[in-house]
Amino acid sequence: MVELLFESLHEGPQLYLFGAGHVGQAIAKALHDSVFSVHVIDEREEWISLLPPQIVRHEIDPEIFISQHTFNPQKSYCVILTHRHDLDETLLNLLLKKELYYLGLIGSESKRRRISQRLIDRGACPQKLNQLKCPIGIGNFGKSPSEIAISVGAELLQLHYGSSK
Question: What are the φ and ψ backbone dihedral angles of 58, each rounded to 5 degrees?
Fold first, then answer.
């Protein structure tokens, strides 16, 4: 008698959300049943524990996660939306050194300019910073976490499926 065990591996795109706050929770919930395998990275147990069980949770310092994780350049979508601007900047600096399909940062155009200039002053490659999407999402659909999640979800799905509409 031969017994075979098969493990299903998600071969589709991987969405890494750095931050399990209100907006991270909303995006994770909006996209968990989509083509994306949704990962949320946050060291705060009280926030990670609020996620539905079908979302991959990484209760770890996001800097450590980035340093230890191998990202697939064709399938890795990363969105930074932590609870601190300085942490956003640190994670952005680390992720700019990786090959990613998508890199987004929550915030305004002025936040993008400020962070980009500081990173360039510290030696970041301006061409890599040109790949950064900030603000994230399509259009201005509101400011609530669920409205932001719809906008970001639409942007990521549109990018994945190659639609220009």
Answer: -125, 95
